[in-house]
Amino acid sequence: MLGGAGMLLAASPAQAADISYRTECIPPPISGLPPVQGTTKVQLTAPAEAKVGDTVEVVWKTVEAASRNPDVLDLEKDTVKPTGTIKVGGAATGTLKMEGPRQNPPIPKSSAMVLPDMKGTLKLEKAGEITLTPDAYNINVSKPISTDTKCTPKETVQPGATIKVTGGGGSTTAGGTTTGSTTGSTTAGGTTTAGGTTTGSTTAGGTTTAGGTTAGGTTAAGGTTSGSGGGQTDFPGKEVSVNFACTSPGPAGIASKVTINAKKSGGSYALTVKTAKGVMDSPAALPAGALKPSMDVVIGGADKGSVKVTGPANAAPLEQGKPVDLSDMTGTYKPGASGKSTLSPGTLTIDVTLGSSKINIPCKVKGSVTPSLELDTTAQQGGASGGTTTGSAGSTAGGTDSGGGLAATGAEDNGTLRALGLVAGTAILLGGAVFTFTPWRRLRGTR
User: How many whole angstroms separate alpha carbon 389 and alpha carbon 403?
Assistant: First the structure.
């Protein structure tokens, strides 16, 4: 979902603060206007806390632009598009690219510029405190001709947000640029990459290569993996198409694409389930914590049962007219049988919280679905066919009976969703279909 650039994990409530700084804006040369000296006021929103490996969203809200619309012409609706940069400092260094949609009300001449919010995503790969500081920005106007007004800080700007990152080491990627230190070397038996992860190891009994033959199995074309011998730990699944039928107040049906990936750890597998990116703008504004997805991954073949995977709620507010994605969902699969076991998408559930009310929308798989992943499993005590386990601790607990067997669940609760303000509606798109949440009649009492 977010570009699939790492798991978007649970984070503490987002923070926001106004930062003001003196700015010089250079109007387009065609205007013949001199540079403008003014004050920019920005509000940055980002999670206060996150973990190494998270991908977080940063929102730039221009409370006040340094320049006004000159006394030249009126700007039409949806002709203004801002872009900008945020300086990343502290535990990581670099720049984060920000971009907003071409969206604005009509702006009369000699009036304040009204800019849509800009967004950027930041992948966290190093522990410590990371500061986010607003920097230069550009205002593009598309009509009557395309022009740019470039605005640059003229004083030292204070950070607008700080993210406390906990976890292991690594580097931080901002807007597609990798910053921080990267170390690694090639050793006998494998390649060490940034962060110290060894992949593609060679052991007695077999050589693991991408898409090649391993001791105990073969990596099949298309991403469906069978066989887990020879030291292989990563098992990428293939993207499969799924049709879901949802109950009210959800949509009648949803078409999406789902990918199930696995990483072996001991006798168990850490699962990551990704859905297709959203490509529709949300019709209403929602604060952080409004939407939380989960799925029952169905286990078939030699093993039976299901694995509960859960994704965090949206870390940043969802704005009207901006794209909406579902976060990656994670859980742990503990095999209960030895042999070829398949993993397929199952029931998708969307939890929506409105004030003190919580709406649960289950969307069951309609028709048949192709397995996304096949694993050569070895039975573990308390596994799917022999019992139900939950979390990394492996404690025994009750589970969901799906597909005729017992369930092995491993999703972790990411905490209580933040209380939401009142909303008119929102939309979620999975692949090519849309959820539309309108003002539910049964929730009118919460207004």
Answer: 17
Give the closest residue to 91 by CA, choosing from 15, 20, 21, 168: 168
CA distances, 272 to each of 199, 262, 343, 358, 373 (Å): 18, 6, 12, 25, 11
> SS3 letters for 83-125?
EEEEEEEECCCEEEEEECCCCCCCECCCCECCCCCEEEEEECC
Asked if residues 132 and 44 have their Cβ atoms less than 8 Å apart, the reply is: yes
Would the pTM count as exceeding 0.70? no
Extract the tokens encoding 342.
């398949």
**Phi, psi (degrees; rounded to nearest 5) at 221:** -65, 150
pLDDT tens, the chain, 447 aa long: 233 333 343 344 566 678 999 999 998 876 778 999 999 999 999 999 999 999 999 999 999 999 999 888 899 999 999 999 999 999 999 999 999 999 999 999 999 999 999 999 999 989 999 999 999 999 999 887 788 999 999 999 999 999 999 985 444 455 433 333 333 333 333 333 334 333 333 333 333 333 333 333 333 333 444 444 457 899 999 999 998 888 766 666 778 889 999 999 888 999 999 988 763 445 445 678 887 889 999 999 999 999 999 999 888 886 755 666 888 999 999 999 999 999 999 998 888 776 656 778 888 999 999 999 999 999 998 888 744 444 433 333 333 333 333 333 333 333 333 333 333 333 333 333 334 443 333 333 333
Among 170, 234, 169, 224, smallest CA distance to 200 is for: 234
Among 309, 287, 286, residue whose Cα is nearest residue 297: 309
Residue 443, phi then psi, degrees to nearest 5: -105, 0
Coil/strand/helix, residue 441: helix
Rounded to whole angstroms, the Cα distance separating 290 from 248 reads 18
Tell me the residue type at 25. Answer: C
Structure tokens at 447: 């207004």
Rg (CA), the chain: 24
